[in-house]
Amino acid sequence: MLTKRIIPCLDVKDGRTVKGVRFEGLRDAGDPVALAARYAREGADELVFLDITATNQKRATLVALVRDVARELDIPFTVGGGIGTVSDVEALLMNGADKVSINSAALARPELIDELAARFGSQCIVVAADARYNDADGWQIYTRAGTHNTGRDAVQWCREAAERGAGEILLTSMSNDGTKDGFALDITGAVSRAVTIPVVASGGAGSKQDFTNVFQQAHADAGLAASIFHFGEIGIRELKEHLRQDGIAVRL
Amino acid sequence: MEIAIVDYKGGNVQSVLFALERLGVQATLTADHDVIRRADKVLFPGEGEAASAMRELRAQGLHELLPTLTQPFLGICLGMQLLGRHTQEGGGTKLLGILPFDVVRFPATPEYKVPHMGWNNLQALRGPLFEGLSAEDYVYFVHSYYAPVGEYTIAEATYPAPFSAAVQHENFYAVQFHTEKSGPVGTRILENFLKL
Q1: Is residue A252 included in any domain, yes or no?
Q2: How far apart are CA B79 and CA B88, in angstroms?
Q3: Is A251 contained in some domain?
Q4: Do residues A5 and A45 lie in contact, with contact meaning Cβ atoms separated by under 8 Å?
Q5: Looking at the domain assignment, is residue A63 inside a domain?
Q6: Residue B141 in 3-state DSSP?
Q7: Most B-contacting residue of A2, A5, A48 (CB-CB within 10 A), to test interface
Q8: Fewer C-beta within 10 Å: chain B N or C terminus?
Q9: Is A250 within the bounds of a domain?
Q10: Do B118 and A2 count as a contact with CB atoms less than 8 A apart?
């Protein structure tokens, strides 16, 4: 039986993990490869690396990181963050990334999704969509770290991305991100029903029950979180044991 | 031990090279017929689209070489599907015809998304490739097309119906999942293959 996936997300800048990672027994919490290996051992199903480097060396440092991670890691991983061209995607895939996620570049030029899917196959093209809710317009897609409203409806954009050949949607609720009040069940459920590709829910995870809810009520295929894992608030194994008790298929 | 990885621009082979490296094994990425024929083991990984993969195999004459190989051979993911007779992908594409299956697409439903992406368990395991493994073991799949179950099937997975997770005919072994991305279980399968 296909299992629900648990995905820790690591923010990296200039090849180093950012956001205070507090992990006992990790000699260098800034080393993304060591952190990734630890998550893999604990039972993470996949990893996402979100690169926030903004220098001219961005591509070279990211390719080097991908190689280091792929050399060490025996579970799949996705790389995202400011990736905008076919040649960027090619360099990352050829060096060992399993999937590449695109966000602003796809919103600026949606045909990029078609081009990437045709060239590399849908299975490795993830479209990351950042949604924020307001009473007037409902759930809309934002860029620039949630500050710029594109005016696009979240469900419609995800459906378009899927039709253009995306293999997976990584849906982040900017309204929930950082709150620890749980995932956005309404928009996650709406997107999951609107597309026939897998949907990864992100933003708002604060408890084990939040994952149960996003799988049972919003039909997400995977749940992604960062700080609750990095700060050791929830262990991957105990989370999966909780999910299994709730009747959710997980890999243990 | 000489290991050849068939180079037909079939996507992410770096991960397979790294997986072998973790096992302390060096492999050569090559399309050279002599090197492939001489190798002790041949790996045939692949991702992406079947029609363009077949075009590249034909351009290199590999469609004639591969069926004649006699050493242990392991197809991975698209590399498994290419061993069949025919696929629905690309509007219908003729394949290498080493194994007698026809590759079809999963019907996408809200409950069963396509691609079939993630960790699924293996059932009905047969043969030396799966020594030491059980139906409790999970491996990582990413694919939209599948080979149905037949007499060549040596492992099944279910999504929502059973399909071929692994197949074998004589020296030709192949797996639909990614051994190189399936944690310790995948590593064990690669080790088992290297012992064949």
Answers
A1: no
A2: 16
A3: no
A4: yes
A5: yes
A6: strand
A7: A2
A8: N
A9: no
A10: yes
Q: Which of B2, B3, B31, B1 is nearest to B16 (CA)?
A: B3
Q: Can you tell me which residue has the tokens 């991983």?
A: A77
10 Å CB burial of residue B190 (0-12, 13-18, 19+) is buried
Element (H, E) at B116: strand B116-121
Angstroms from B98 CA to nearest CA on chain A: 24
Neighbours of B167 (CB within 10 A): 27
For residue A33, the one-letter residue type is V
Query: At A97, phi and psi to the nearest 5?
Result: -65, 140
Q: Is A74–B14 a contact, with Cβ atoms under 8 angstroms apart?
A: no
Q: How many residues would you count in chain B?
A: 196
CB contact under 8 A, B144 and A123: yes
Interchain proximity A193–B184, CB inside 8 Å:
no
Q: What is the pLDDT along chain A (252 residues), one digit of tens a residue?
A: 999 999 999 989 888 888 655 555 555 668 899 999 999 999 999 999 999 887 778 888 899 999 999 999 999 999 999 899 999 999 999 999 999 999 999 999 999 999 999 889 899 999 999 999 999 999 999 998 778 999 999 999 999 999 999 999 999 999 999 889 999 999 999 999 999 999 999 999 999 999 999 999 999 999 999 989 988 899 999 999 999 999 999 999
| Domains of chain B listed by start with CATH number | 3-194 (3.40.50.880)
Structure tokens at B75: 């197809």
Decide if B19 contacts B57 (C-beta within 8 A): no
Q: How many domains does one find in chain A?
A: 1
Q: Is B191 on the interface with A (CB under 8 A)?
A: no
> What ipTM did this prediction achieve?
0.94
What CATH number does the domain containing A220 carry?
3.20.20.70
C-alpha of B48 from chain center:
13
**Residue where the block lists tokens 């060396």:** A57
- Residue A9: domain span: 5-245
Quick one: three-class SS letters along B151-170? CCEEEEEECCCEEEEEEEEC
Residue B74 host element (H or E) = strand B73-76
